[in-house]
Amino acid sequence: MPPLPRPRRIVGVSTKMYFDLQSTLSYVRGMLQLDGDAWNARIDLFVIPDFVTLMASAEILQPSSIMLGAQDIFWEDKGAYTGEVSPLVVRQAGAKIVELGHAERRAMFGETDETAAKKAGAAARNGLIPLVCIGEKTHHSVASAAVGAAIQECTPQVNSVLAAVPDDAEVILAYEPVWAIGAAQPADPDHVVNVTKELRKLAAGRSGVTRILYGGSAGPGTFAKIAEGVDGLFLGRFAHDIHNLKKVIEEVGGA
Ligand SMILES: O=C[C@H](O)COP(=O)(O)O
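Above: the input record for the complex with glyceraldehyde-3-phosphate. Below: its predicted structure, written as tokens.
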């Protein structure tokens, strides 16, 4: 059987909790300046700021095709859940994407495959695209063992999410090996390609679009080395300089 056509490429950046309020808004304004360039026709672009700047970011991005995301949601839409953020409200605030299961939330805030899956279901129910972060915690020094171990650890992470969303719902999976997040450089390209090619098979029967991104110290120069396995990049620190983001967009968009 010939390989399925690959989905449209997509690049996004999370500000995590790196910026203060004004810095976030000026970064989002900077992204707006990039809109309308030649990449527009070829790739999708998104930004995931903190919750507090979500509505102001939505207003800035309103004239553009740049998609807005939130860094988390709760799995219920309304009720006595003090401190949680409703997927319904996130959608109403202008978000199209919601990031779930990031390694930092798994390590520090008790996120599990089960909670990420429940939140993914809530996202789809509210018309949000779940962007679920998956990845193995440790890196084996022998390359072949590292690939097998990563696939084994990531498979249940992917399957639990896919089981929780309708078959035709759009899903983004961000492969982020935990050991490559916040590092000096991204994971070895062969490792990323070998793991993501296998993970793509887990979603092969779905009717909804499933895109696979790489994240973890990615920046300019990363995409070309792993394009065989992924549909784009999910960026952190190295895209917080808007000039770097522009370079990545041009690389992924093929300009
Ligand atoms: O959300 C983005 C990823 O965790 C990557 O972050 P990083 O590029 O700063 O390592």
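Notes for the reader.
Residues 143-164 form the longest helix (22 residues).
The mean pLDDT is 95.
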